[in-house]
Amino acid sequence: MKLHAAAKLNLCLYLGPRRADGLHELCSLFEPLTLSDLIEVEEAATDEVVCEGLEGENLAERALAGLRARGWDGPPLRIEIEKRIPIAAGLGGGSADAAAVLRLAAGARVGDLPELAAELGADVPSQLVPALSLVRGAGERIERLPDPSPHAVVLLPGGGGLSTARVFEESDRLGLGRSAGELDEIEAALGEAAGAGASPLAYADLLVNDLEPAALALRPEIEDALDSLRGAGAGQVMLSGTGPTAVGVCEDIVAAERVAARLDREVDAIVCEAGRAPDGT
Could you tell me if 154 and 262 are in contact, meaning their C-beta atoms sit under 8 angstroms apart? Predict the structure, then answer.
């Protein structure tokens, strides 16, 4: 069996107060990309998760262990992940892989999958069914929205990764963030704008990332990537999640390829369609 684990793009990310559990209240729009990791699953003697090039924690391995702990009695599996989504790029690759593993148990008599997804990470619940979603809380409150009109993106991952924890710590140091009331108003505005199935370019003024100043403080060179996309003619430019990936939103794949061709960069851009996951997800 071959599966696709779709990358996730934060079309916007509004930062609210820190909660009692230490996490921040957020408001965001998530959408899937056709950029995806390829996961090959086959029966084996014992459970094994392999991901070449990934160091440290493997969320997919934790997801499989979590399924077993909740009584999933599927056969032992060897799961091999081919990473195509850049690692630690703010594109949700690890979360996508974990969600893909959890979907193996869909329809089986196993404990609450959304609850397990939330235990694995804030982005995993939204990846169980990749779709345009309005997200609140720390990622656990998800409202599915209609598919948006076709559009595409140009991604400049930047390389080197950027720690999510460090970005949030820097945002606290800088005093970034909004009140709970502001987030409620923003949630309503996003729901109305995106709920009609329009392209994100139709509500570009709402595509704001409150964490961008913190990410730029830690990795100033991200500004060069953002400026490059603006200069190349992207319709809207922003940081994805906690970075370091710079994103240019374009009206279609042809426009995105045109923007990528204008970039004068040593690191190759990634061009892909947005708003839908690849077939086989």
Answer: no
